[in-house]
Each structure stands twice: as structure tokens, then as C-alpha cells.
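re: ur question from earlier - yeah i can do the single chain one, its not a big deal. heres the input i used so u can compare w yours
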Amino acid sequence: MTKIPAAFTGAAHFAVSVLAGEDVCAAAGLPVKPGAPRPTFDEHVWEFTGIIGLPRYLARSSQILFFTEILNPLWWNVAKEFVFARLAPEHPSVRELPHAYRTPVLIATVHGRLTKLTEWLNWLTEQGVESLSEVTQQHCDAYLELRKKVRDKHGVVIRDSSTGYRMGMVAVIQELAYYTELFSTDAYAPGFRPWGQRTAYAVAGVVKQSGNKTPALRDEVFQPLVAAALYVVEVLGPHVIELHEQLQAMFSDRPGRHSGRHWNVEVPRAIARHVEEGEPFDIALDHVITQRLADGWSPQDPLLRVNLITLAHETGRHAFQLKWLSALRSQIEDAVATVGLEKRWARRAAPVARADGRGEAPWALPLNTYEARGHISRALTACVIALGVLTGMRFSELTELPLDCRLPPEESGEGRVRYRLKSKIVKGRGLGGQWDEWVTIKEAYNTAGVAAALADPARQSGHLFKKFTFGTPYDAFLSWVNGPEGRRLGLAPIPEEPVNLRMLRRTLAVEMAHRPGGLLAAKIHLKHISVVTTEGYANRPGGAQSVLLAEFGREEREHKMSVTLAAYQDYKNGIRPAGPGAKDLTDFFESVDGTVGQPGAPNVKRSEQEVMNLLAKRAGMLHLGQANHCWFLDPSKALCLKLAGRSASDATAPLIGLCDSARCPQATHHADHRPVWAASAQNKKVFIATIGRAQNTEKARLAADLTRDERVLSEIDAAAGTGA
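and the output i got, formated as C-alpha cells:
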């Protein structure tokens, strides 16, 4: 029972709300599982845990609303009426309010609103305010100033609060004024609206920004992270699955599992089996040994380091009863003296190829049960990382993946297989979400298979992953990769920088847009991901992959514009492009710069906006290759189309994989392409040096290609040198 503060006992008799007795779920149109809680307005705790269709990522604590955390009971009804109105805007008592919101919000939203409202009302109580009618703009400004800083539990300022937090806090304070006519026990003074007509955005100082502001991961983080995740899934995955099956079998149903019956038969039998098979006993965890010593065990006790719980597991029991020890001690001591102690799992681990290609190593060193479960947890974290990177799924979409998320592969032509995963889209959809399909590459499809094999159906409610937060599992994965085990397996260390699933999705879009011919983690070809994402969009135009493709398209347009602008700035600085298309590009930049006009006409300097518009048109024709820029202005001049025998009349893009930029009149080379050409030339020199005398034809071909590479290099150097 909640104790009402003495200061408010005089307000025990409150007016009856027009919402009294209302079934909250019925009014809000929220379906409830049979037998689950159905909160009514009169209750002071509303539990929504039985709502059908709540997103899986939503924590249980966010599904329960505690109005009693508001110190002043006078305001309990205010908070309940406010939350009810946001959940059920179509209720007759709400829809007539002139300033009320007309769109219902989600449970997660009202939980956040109630949290901020509770903080505001309790602060007013601390200031001696006993009625909302006493609230003035001075109170609002003082509270905003307080919330501009984040403080620890001792009141020490840690950092500035985010503008998003401030905006949400200001919005709640303002929204109370919209429902004055609904409130039965208290309300702001008539006509009072905090901060007047200013919006919450303006009051909080939110600056409107365009584009995606989620930062992409640096290559130094992204490459080793994805490589480590794929290594765990593809190389260690089969062994971890086998370990998982062994752990599951350890707890298989056996007689006596849930009671102590027959322990004096089954446990001695398990001890004897160790001796017969020469199998060492498991080693106890360090904290168990420490606790035993604290409980008075002798450091010389031969059973001090024996894992007695594992011995109980072998008989189908979850725990070893200490009262058994006196009867079994001598038998266990003799058995331990005979077979010894060793961690139970992966005692004879199979060798696997190291990630750095330097030979082989056991996939794991001997593990105790706790460490074995840690391996399974890390493998599932690797699955989350790999799926997030390879599919671009959001956190909410990953948590909704069912165990049968892998749809049967479809043959879409000779040698072509379409792999699909199904899940729910939660963001922007109504309660329960909407089923969707993702067309993926084989690596993502296989990753989902590994995750399904490691799932515990009893704990994960038929889903691929149990409810999780990404931060803690990622920290554990990072520590493992950067620790002794990661070094033993040849994994490259990952810099300790913030990583979340939004950043993985953002990095995927940036990688596809910036490096269309590159490699993802030196293993997954980005072109494959781009193709399947496009196929997924074509398969379901309104699905989640269309959103990812749109994000990729925006990033690609911005990147092409930045590349074009950089080339133009180089021109302005006297650095010219090289390649067959260099003169055409230079002429274009000269026209943009206004240094070349019509014959007989004076030169006119263009405005900055006009320059940007002209560059944007040319950027739209740019296609990025690893070793050149292709300005696809005239398909009839495209050498790649001629080499492929393709008609230029209906071509909208070059065949960048067939590009011979040393001869194509629309290709240019720039300083950032030099490393690619230099590496190509160096590789050819190495090959030529190793070719035998009998391979003159191949040697001549490579020599001609080397001459071309060196010519391109000299042209790039000469063009860049003009800027000196």
C-alpha cells in the first residue's frame, strides 16, 4: 500500500473523474491475451504485459505504469487522465477537447511521457508547490535550467543533457495545458501555457538537421569487427553448435531430475563412470573455490577444486546437495586421485584455420560450463553483428526474427539462388508490426541458420534471439577478440570505440555508396549485397529493404557530389585530372568557372549556387570505379558497352566491371586512384619475374599491361605536378 505524504492528507477527497471505471485497454483498442491483466482507470498501477503484439525489444519495466511514484496523490488522477487521453484519443471525453492530440501513441511512448511527467511533478513538490494552479513560467524556466545538465546520484554535474531529452521534457510540461478540461483534481491556471506559443523544439534549442546523423564506423573498427564476427560464425560456428548440443543433453530429462530420490545410487554410479572411462572431473569456478575457503574448507582439501555441481548435472540434477558430501567424500577423493581434474568441455578441441592464415589452432581451449555458455553467447552476438551488417536490419527487426525465419531458397536462373529471411517491421507500423521479407546473400542466410541452431526455444519464445540489449554482449565480444583467445585464433584487435546496430546499418549504406567495387571486411563483396538489396526492393517495393536502398541512394548521391566537388577544387588549385576523358572534364570545369564564354562575349562569373547546380548535374553522371571515375555522359562513347557488344541506345549505366579506363574517352584518373595503379604495377612486376622462359606469350601480355599501368601512373603524377 502506498503511503500518502502527511502534507497531502487533507486532499484525500478528490473529485470523480469522467473516466472512472473505464477499461483502459478496451478504450485504447489494445487486444489482451486471455487471463492477462486488464488495467482500469481507477487502479494506480497499469500493467500492459498481456497486450498482444507488443514489440519484443520493449522491456517488461516499460510495460507497467506506476502512478504512485508521483509524491502528491492529488496529481495521480492528473497523470492517469493525461496518459489515458494519449492512448485513447477517440474516447468521447477526449475527442471533444479542442487542443488534444488525435493520434494514439504506443505503450513505450506513454511510459516515457509518464517518466518525465513524474520527474516534473515531484520537482514541483520539492519546491513547495501543492497545486498545478500555482505553476508559473518561472517554475518552468528554472526546471529547464536544471535539466540542461545530467547529474549523478550525488548531484555532481556529469555532462550536458541532449537536446532530444530537453525537447521531450518541455513537451510533457506543455501538453498538460492541452487537457485542462479533462483533469478532475488539478490543472494549470486558466489560459496558462508554459513558454507561450513557442514549440518544444524551439524551447529546447533543437536545430533542424537534414540527412542521417548516425555516424558510420571507421574502417579501423568496421573491418576487424565484421571479420571477427564472420570468423566466429563460419569457422567456429559448427563447433559451438556441437558444444551447445552437448550442454543441452546434459540437462535432458532423467528419473530423479527434480528430486533427491536415488541420489545415493545415481551419483556414485556417475563417479564410477569417471574412473572406468578415465575421464577427469570438472574444475570448480574461481568464485566457488573462494566461497568454499570462506566457509572454512581447508586449502589442502582434495575436493576444494572439484566442480560438484557438474557431477550433479551428470545425473540430471541442477544442484549438488552438501548433505551428500559426507557419504560420498571418500569415493570422490579416490576417483579424483585416479583420473585428476580438467575443465570438462572442449578437452580435445578440433583444429581450425587461424583468422590470420598462420596455420591452425584448437578452436577452443578446455572450458568449464560457465565458459562454454560464454562461447555460445559470443557466437550469438557474432550472429547479431553479421546479420546487422549483411542485411541492414534494425535492432527491432532482428529481435523479431522467428526460429523459422529462413525461407526455402529459390532458384532464379542457372547458378542463381535467392535467399530470403522473414521478420516483422515494427518501426512506423501499428501494434503487432508487419511481416516482411529480406532478400539476402548466402552468408547472412547461413548466419541465421547458426543462430537457430544455438537458440533455446524454451527461453526465446520461438524467436532466433532472446530479448537482448546490444551494449553488454558487444563489450563481452570485444574483450574476447582483444584478449588472449582472440590473439590465439589470429583475430585482428578491434579499437575500443562506441558501436551500436544503428551504426552498423549506417556503415553498410556508406560502404555500398562509397566503395561499389570494394570488399567488405576483405571477404564479402559489396556488389552482392547491393544486388540482393535491390532484388529485395523489387520483390517487395514497400518493404524494409526499400528504406535501406533509399538511404544507400541518398548517401551515394551525396558522395558523388563530394567527389565531383573535390575534383573541381583540385582544378581550381591547378591540379588537373589524367586519363582519356581529362580534357573533356577540364573543359567542363572551365565553363563552370566562367573562364570560358561565348565567342565575343564577356566572361561572367557564376554565383556559388549556380556552380553547385552545374556540378550536381555532372555528379549525376558519375560512376565510381576502383581505379577511375567514369563520366557516363554519352553511352555511344562507352568502351565497356562496345567490348560487351551491348547497344548504347537503352544503356543507363556503364559496365564498370569491363572498364578499360586507359582507353575509354569518358574515364578520368585522379590522385586517389594512384595507389590502385601502383599496386597493380608492382604485382605485375612480381609475376613477370616468376614466369618461366617457356611462357613468352603470357610474359608479353603482362609486360604490355605493365607498360599501360606505368603510363597511367606517369600521367597521374604529371597532372598532379602541375599544381606545384
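Residues 345 and 372 are 7 Å apart (CA to CA). not sure if urs matches, ping me
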